[in-house]
Structures are given as structure tokens and as C-alpha cells.
Amino acid sequence: MKKAWILILALLLGLCLLACGQPTAPEHQTYTFPEGTAVLGVDMTGLTKEEACSKLEAAAADYQLELTVDGITVPVTAQEIDLRCSRDDLLAGLDALFQNVPADLSQVISFNEGKLRALMSQYFNKDVTEASICFDEAEGKYVVLAHADGQKSNPNALVAAVKEAVVTLTPTQTLTGVSE
What we know:
The protein is of the alpha+beta class. 37% of the residues lie in helices and 23% in strands. Strands 4-3-9 form a three-stranded mixed β-sheet, covered by helices on one side. It is elongated. The relative contact order is 0.16.
């Protein structure tokens, strides 16, 4: 939630910079983003709308997230979760920014939730795969000790954390307390 407010404040600051720095672009002129402008965490300084769109699409295609959950770090790539950047929505949002109109770009980036859940199941929610027997001196008998490859986790919390990171193309996300 904190990152969402930071994103909103950054977008508002960017809009203020645009409002103070440039008039609305006439059809025959090409304007560029002023210095210090970032969209979804990507620097747009000096770029036209088309250049900014291409740069954001490239950033989305090359996106890699390191998701750390209770001490276990899981790499997540754009290809593994079918991360997409909607060019039409992105161009519309960038166009709005150039016209000094607030734009919500949080829906521009999307991913396949099913693929994310399948990827996370490789690291979490694994069943017991082996066991060992040892003598428990306190009980005075042999007991079976199960060993699990992974740990149980809340899959909805994992998906929500990835959504929060992906919307802003944040490269790292750390979660604690989602293991069951």
C-alpha cells in the first residue's frame, strides 16, 4: 500500500512538472518529457511519447523480479509469467500526461496469474517427499520425521505482492509472515 501511495505521489509530481514546464503540444510540434520525469519507475527525460512507449515496453520485456518470501528468494522473469505491456493503454496514458491530464498507468502492465501460481508452486506448498526414522529419547521410542522440500504459503499474498511490484516494475519484493 505504501508503494502505491509513493507511485501516486510520483505521478502527481510528474504531472506538476509537466504542467509547469510545457504547454499542451500543438499538432505540428513534438514535445519531450522534462528532466526528472519517470513513468512506472523508468526515466523518461528527453523522450517523445513514442520513444517513452518503446522504452517502457522494453523495460517490461526485460523485467526480472526477485521475490523473497520468509527468507527464500524466488526469481521471476517477464517470460515466466507472460508479462505484457499494453501499447494502446500506454500511449493513451502518455498522451494524457503530455496534455497535463492525470493518467492512471497502473493497468498498463499485466501478467498471467495462473503461470505465476504454477511457478510459485515449484518453491512453495510442496507435499512431503521423504521421511526418516530416529529414536526420540524423551518418548523412548522410534518416531518418523517428515521432511518437506518447500514450505506452505498463502498463494493470494504471493500474487498480491507480485502485482504490487509488477505495476511499478519494481525489481525486488520482500514478504514476511505469509507461510502457514
